[in-house]
Amino acid sequence: MPIYAYKCDACGHAKDVLQKMSDAPLTDCPACGAPKFNKQLTAPGFQLKGTGWYATDFKGGGAAAVPAAAGTAADAVATPASAAGGDTAAPAATASAAGCAASCACH
To answer: With a threshold of 0.70, does the pTM exceed it?
Structure first.
């Protein structure tokens, strides 16, 4: 079951509540009783443990996880922009876009 963060707009009381996704949201503040108790938007938190993909593919820096052809294409795209004195963020965006087809949804 997910944990939802709630905060009262009237008194500022905040509380984390363990609820089913199908449960109706809470509306009444447990501290002041006002009907101003609203769900807050929060980032999910999780941790991967064990001998999964992190320990085998990315823990040592990820060099072994990148295929040689993909690294070469990224270097080829990044070299002209960096040699011309361009922004260092632009080659990364160009390199990621180089792997996409012209009809993809990201362009």
So the answer is: no
